[in-house]
Design a protein that fits this description.
The complex is a heterodimer of chains A (592) and B (334). Chain A has 592 residues and is of the alpha+beta class. Chain A has 16 helices and 24 strands. In chain A, the strands form seven sheets. Chain A has a six-stranded mixed sheet. In chain A, a hairpin with a 3-residue loop joins strand 10 and strand 11. The two termini of chain A are 34 Å apart. The relative contact order of chain A is 0.19. With 334 residues, chain B is mainly alpha-helical. Chain B is 72% helix and 2% strand. Chain B has 14 helices and two strands; from the N terminus they run H-H-H-H-E-E-H-H-H-H-H-H-H-H-H-H. In chain B, helix 13 packs antiparallel against helix 14. Chain B starts with a helix and ends in a 7-residue tail after the last helix. Classes of the chains: A alpha+beta (592), B mainly alpha (334). Chains A and B meet through helix 1 and helix 7 of A and helix 2, helix 3, helix 5 and helix 13 of B.
Chain lengths: 592, 334
């Protein structure tokens, strides 16, 4: 969905992060260990941290401005309109074009930290915005003197206008929807087009440099929520609606100077961007020249060959960075290669409405050879064994005490199944056209056969994969799903993958295990809106999530995704962005 | 002639309508659900309903089809209330994948496909028909065996093998031609001008032509052998006409008639996109556009490209019928 579908961006045909995440696992190409030091097979699962992948940042410390970065991608970007831009490759580019109220400093190798961007830090403690007591109202002060690319002033009204566009759900089908879902909407506001006389009353602009957001419930993560592109300013007079995708007005260091969809996108410097107002964007290169429509195999070979203009090249399609057949050639390019973790963890879900006994699910998890599963999912270059379904770079992360052996533990699984009613046959569903998932299915088949369970492998069309997983009870007992966080807190992960839906009576739509317990449902919902200190909430969330994982076994954490990146020899400051799982365009520099 | 053209034009419209109904039906009644695919993590029935409005899928199927067809000939208004916009004819709608107008995407891709198809067609006609005639006139001789042998080799080698081998040898090892290394080749009006275009397309032309030349050599050879054995050829020779006149005016003209048919269909099909060749040489033509659209479940593009390919094939058939009358005096178009 690339990818695209689009790692993530390339296969993310859908805007859904869950879709992105899951597609991505299967779109990554296989690799073999050895070219980059693979994580020791036991270390990641025992430590629970991000596995050793070498330096997080290579050729860093470069501060010279100038030069052109050549970016090679296989397909057109889904969206560049900030209200719809939600997948990783276009997101990586979007951060260069527009600013948002807040922004993540996701320096490779470090835990992402939220920073003020257009906003001015005004809140108490670590908060950027000013919350009221129950955190339902957040006030943001914004910088004065910021300008769009045409020199006109950026005001609170421009940010509010883009949030209003978010409510035009019948016009914009893609994009992150948190503000639309969580802001109060008492007058059924449906965007600025359908009824231009209506106003989004839950976002107020008492003066040109203040925004006040009214949420329906307490939002402790509001600062992080404001980092998504729906808070990028859009001047109302320049809103071309569905065509804004192709001519977004810049508020960031770069603006579009040429765009031929499917062919080329060129970004040049925005003369009205002021570095003094934007410490988060080094903006070293003078321009970015993005060429579209290049086959992944060609991208991989060009980056390895490192000839001519490709010395200043990189890809922001994970699926294009390194092809399986090219892995052995990386030895000669070690100084241009870096690998790192992003926001995604993949796990095999157990359909709890089909495999109803938690001990049976636990036994199946014990039986899985997760080391072989990593190999099936394209090898150690692309992932390591996780100790939780939560990514290790999430704030307050705590590994779950899974008690699983990397190569499987058949005796323990058999012991656990003593006296239990064990299904003779189950179905493993994999997404059609995702060979890695099929390889994983074969691993399950092999491992569960040792417990006397036959696994039927069922191919599911890719475009209806998640719809099939959501059906209740559905045809599938086990399948691979995943989650990539939008911001690195437990509250952005645990509620959607283990929590209830809005009615509090059943599982949520991305809770593919169909785990539901009325007690934990209440706990999850309460924690998601808790106004206690973040560290306390993190601790409680981690404890609850790990307790559910190790007592209920809704899933078996299978792969913490890694993102190998190869760049041309003239590219500097190279590392994997913890948010985008891609080379972080924001920090790179290039020799002229 | 006029009557013929009118008749065929009406048939063309009818066929396109039939193709559009079948294609539209296949993709809209099928299991794929574009709204659900775009729905994301907060997917609710209400959200799916909103996406259907955004995609124009909320209306009855017949209405959707009528508006689509109306857009093709007269343009149409698209988008929900408050965000309506005009999509000029021929309006194929917007891509579900990247929001681009489908017609814009086709217009971008078309020059690459036309460049590829026409250049390759010229090569395979010259080589295929030329060597076929020579082989046919020299049946059993070395040149015949060589032509047929090379033709057999050409037809049995897959496009990826020919393409990648040519890139490896000509571009990379020998460096006879510039290695575009995956970037879209220049078009004649791009900065490099016609020279860059010619250099960039030379290998794709030969790759594609290699496959077709082989068929044309064999077909022309067989036809030539058959025609040159006809009584009227013997009569013409006996009357003392020069061999060149007998061969070209009487022999080749009769032998080429079935080749015109095949050529029209081949060229019409290729104008719908040569997927493999376009992929190997990173040509952003209609073939690649089609393959990407299928991979992404991008129904507006798929529908448009099927219609487009059908259009080319049908038009090619009409042109073939007209050419028949030119090359074969026995055929009349009334």
């Amino acid at each position: 969905m690339n990818r695209r579908r689009p790692l993530i961006a390339a296969v993310a045909a859908s805007t859904a992060i869950v879709l992105i995440a899951s597609c991505s696992s299967s779109s990554k190409k296989g690799g073999t260990s050895g070219t980059n030091p693979p994580p020791p097979s036991g270390s990641s699962s025992s430590s629970g941290g991000t596995p050793s992948t070498g330096p997080a940042l290579i050729k860093d410390g470069y501060t010279v401005k100038g030069g052109t970065v050549n970016i090679l991608v296989q397909a057109n970007f889904e969206h560049l309109d900030p209200v719809q831009n939600y997948v990783t490759n276009s997101g990586n580019v979007g951060k260069l074009i527009y600013r948002t109220l807040t922004v993540f400093d996701d320096t490779p190798g470090k835990a992402p930290v939220i920073k003020a961007d257009i906003a001015v830090k005004s809140g108490p403690g670590d908060y950027i915005g000013i919350p009221n007591k129950d955190q339902t109202v957040w006030t943001y002060k914004i910088q004065k003197g910021l300008k769009f690319q045409d020199g006109s002033a950026i005001t609170a009204a421009d940010i509010k206008y883009n949030v209003e566009r978010l409510f035009a759900a019948d016009v914009y089908k893609d994009g992150a929807t948190y503000l639309r879902d969580l802001l109060v909407n008492s007058n059924n506001y449906a965007g600025p087009y359908k009824d231009p006389n209506k106003d989004l009353t839950s976002v107020q602009t008492p003066d040109p440099y203040t925004l006040v957001f009214h949420f329906a419930s307490g939002q402790p993560d509001a600062d992080m929520m404001m980092s998504l592109f729906y808070t990028a300013p859009v001047p109302k007079a320049k809103d071309t609606k569905q065509d804004y995708d192709f001519k977004p007005v810049s508020s960031g260091p770069y603006m579009i100077t040429k765009y031929t969809p499917n062919k080329e996108l060129v970004l040049g410097r925005n003369p009205n961007w002021s570095a003094a107002t934007d410490p988060n964007r080094p903006a070293l290169p003078d321009s970015f020249d993005i060429t579209m429509g290049i086959a992944p195999a060609t991208v991989s070979q060009r980056l390895i060959a490192n000839q001519g203009s490709d010395q200043s090249a990189l890809s922001i399609d994970n699926s294009s960075d390194i092809q399986p057949g090219d892995v052995s050639k990386l030895q000669g390019a070690k100084d241009r290669f870096v690998n790192g973790a992003g926001p995604c963890v993949f796990y095999n879900i157990f359909n709890e409405n089909k495999i109803k006994d938690a001990d049976v699910r636990h036994a199946f998890a014990l039986a899985l050879n997760r080391q072989a599963a990593i190999t099936a999912l394209n090898g150690t270059l692309f992932g390591s064994i996780p100790s939780s379904f939560i990514a290790a770079n999430v704030r307050g992360f705590q590994p779950a005490n899974l008690g699983l052996k990397d190569t499987g533990d058949i005796p323990a699984a058999k012991a656990l199944l003593q006296g239990k009613t064990v299904p003779k046959s189950i179905t493993y569903g994999y997404s059609q056209g995702r060979p890695a998932q099929k390889a994983l299915a074969l691993q399950w088949q092999s491992d569960l056969k040792k417990l006397g369970v036959n696994v039927t492998i069922q191919s599911i069309p890719t475009d209806s994969f998640y719809k099939t997983l959501r059906t209740d009870p559905g045809p599938v007992d086990i399948a691979l799903a995943g989650w990539c966080w939008d911001w690195p807190t437990m509250a952005s992960i645990v509620p959607p993958v283990l929590g209830p839906d809005a009615t509090q009576k059943t599982w949520s739509t991305s809770n593919f295990s169909k785990y539901f317990d009325s007690v934990t449902a209440k706990q999850i919902t309460a924690l998601a809106g808790s106004t206690e200190a973040p560290a306390t909430v993190d601790q409680q969330f981690a404890t609850l999530a790990n307790q559910i994982q190790t007592t209920n076994w809704p899933f078996v954490p299978t792969q913490a995704a890694l993102n190998p990146i190869l760049v041309g020899s003239k590219i500097h400051n190279v590392g994997v962005s913890g948010i985008w799982s891609l080379p972080d365009l924001n920090i790179i520099g290039v020799e002229p | 002639m006029v009557k013929f053209l009118i008749r065929r034009f009406v048939a063309l419209i009818g066929l396109l309508i039939a193709v559009s109904i079948v294609t539209f039906g296949l993709f809209t009644i099928g299991p794929s659900d574009p709204a659900a695919d775009s729905c994301g993590k907060s997917c609710t029935p209400e959200r799916i309903g909103q996406i259907k409005v955004a995609l124009g899928l909320d209306k009855p199927l017949v209405t959707q089809y009528w508006e689509y067809m109306k857009g093709l000939v007269a343009g149409r208004e698209m988008g929900p209330p408050g965000a309506r916009y005009h999509c000029g004819w021929p309006c194929f709608g917007r891509s579900y994948q990247d929001n681009q107008f489908v017609w814009d995407a086709i217009k971008q891709a078309l020059p690459y496909t036309i460049s590829l198809a026409l250049g390759a067609a010229l090569i395979w006609l010259v080589f295929g028909v030329g060597f076929g005639v020579i082989a046919g006139l020299n049946k059993g001789k070395l040149i015949d065996k060589l032509s047929v042998g090379v033709a057999s080799l050409g037809v049995s080698l897959p496009v990826p093998l020919i393409g990648l081998t040519l890139i490896l040898l000509v571009n990379t090892d020998w460096r006879w031609l510039p290695y575009t290394s995956g970037q879209a080749p220049a078009l004649p009006w791009d900065s490099g001008g016609p020279v860059a275009w010619f250099k960039n397309f030379l290998l794709p032309w030969f790759t594609l032509a290699a496959i077709f030349s082989a068929s044309y050599v064999r077909l022309t050879r067989a036809n030539m052998i058959e025609t040159m054995g006809e009584d009227y050829i013997r009569t013409a020779t006996a009357k003392g006409l020069p061999r060149r006149t007998v061969t070209l005016k009487h022999g080749l003209r009769a032998a080429i008639t079935p080749i015109v048919t095949i050529f029209g269909l081949d060229l019409g099909g290729l104008l719908g996109g040569a997927v493999l060749t376009e992929f190997i040489y990173s040509l952003p033509g209609l073939g690649k556009l089609s393959a990407d659209a299928v991979n992404n479940g991008d129904l507006p593009k798929i529908l448009a490209l099927v219609l487009f390919a059908a259009f080319f094939v049908i038009v090619a058939n009409i042109i073939v019928d007209i050419l028949y009358a030119v090359v074969d005096p026995r055929v009349r178009l009334d």
